[in-house]
Amino acid sequence: MNEQIKSGFKGQDPHSTFQKYMTEIAESREFHGMPDVYYDDGRIQWEAPSNRTGGKFKDSHHRRRDWWARKAAEIGIPTTEDRWISKTAKRIHPTKEKPCKKCGRLMDIRYVYPSNMFEKRFRKCELVDSDFDIDQLEDIYALIDRLHEEPGVDATKVLACVIGEHPSLPSLTADVEAWKSWITEVYAPSEPKTLSPGVMSNAPDRFDGFHSFNRCCRGTADKGRGKKNLRSYSTDRRVFEYWASGDWIAADRLMGIVRSEFRGEPCKNGHDGPCQADHIGPISLGFCHFPCFQLLCSACNSAKNNRMYPSDVAWLIERESKGEQIVSWHSQALWDKLKHRVETHEHALRISKVLRDNRHSYMAALFFIAQSEQFGFLASLLEMEYAERDVSFLGLRIVDAVTKYDSIQYSARTTKYVLEQKARRARIAFGELDNYFTKENRNVFLAENPFSRTMLEATIRSLRTIENETADYNRSISEALKTSADEKIPAFKRVFSEYDRFDNRVYEKSKTLFKAHMNAVADVLSEMWEDDRYVREIDDL
User: Fold this and answer.
1) CA-CA distance, 520 to 48, in Å (whole number)?
2) What confidence tens digit (pLDDT) does each residue in 382-391 have?
3) Cis before residue 274, ω within 30 degrees of 0?
């Protein structure tokens, strides 16, 4: 049996150093008791993915997760802590270093390598010549030594500038060895954004709890991890946080393509790039996350913020007249009542604020439903089905700083990332719902009247009448919500795998009642069009 077969990677040729490392880890006392160590033919089962659907080792992933939970308890890490499994992997690793599967380069598993943020701050400090090289594969200690040897450079001042404020930052009079000790004992364990690990945690998928490819090769060897390819995939988490409607898979994909291929285009206002894909109808105001964006530079994007101009409203009305869904269902009634009232700059700002209060009222209603533990109904509002298809844009181009294309091609998507995306959407959406009204300084106005309250209560009663069909689904989501941060994605993946074919049509009556509630909210808010809360005294330029 040759070494490639022994390694457990079919069709690949791991570096010899990595193969030796695999054997050492599999036989180490730190990993004693790991389930399903070997395949029947003697190969080490290094990878145990969660998406196996059959075979003797289809449950290896779950058995190993249980092993990691027992190991965490053994060393005193509560599984209720955030990132408990990655903390456990780092704590028990016997050497704190691992070789790269592709090139064999040995790298530290801890946060000891300069990140992009480190380099950005380093350049901004202007304490070292601009031609001084930052190698993100060189650990911070070697970098400090080079700085210390650089003529006319005070390494401690550079470090203090890059790190910024920290409660236990060493004195500028401390020598570089004291700074190194502080980084090892205090700073690196806090996993700051200025530093990166040599390899990312990946338990329980990988035997040792870490990705096979180190920082040196993950961007090239790991399929899909190249910088350009990563930029072409994007997720606007605000879509999930605000429970927005729309083809989020297509919209996310288009945002990613703009980021990777059209960043250099000029912005709508004629400024140079790089540009960002901007929602013409802000999703924070209840508009859909749909595949059409304008290009704005960072300054213009910040200036626009979550408000609209008359030209934005006119553009949205024009797109809507062509049959496109541009506003989420929960904001449709209010939009229909107010959109044709917008004639001035002040009107555009006014409708923006009214729509924002509509969003607050919607989030409050969702929170009320969550308190009644009708989680399956809430999940039905997240439009998970979009995750089940892939998209490509034909004839994609930029015209007048707006994305245009001839058509969208859809194809079925059956990879493990379908469940992954559903789980992430649920985790973000339900997580935001839980803390939305606990955020400080939120100026929230909740619109309601007797009829809106009646309709919301009727929604709950309707949901309770079908609990014989939905109770198990509700319970499964409830259990997923109670898990730790590390466990939530796997827990939601199990939920959506088990209830993959759950028929959401059971919620149609409840959705109709909920829509009636939001229509009543729209009545309240539209009648406040001239209210002092919304009317602004501005120069209408």
Assistant:
1) 51
2) 999 998 988 9
3) yes
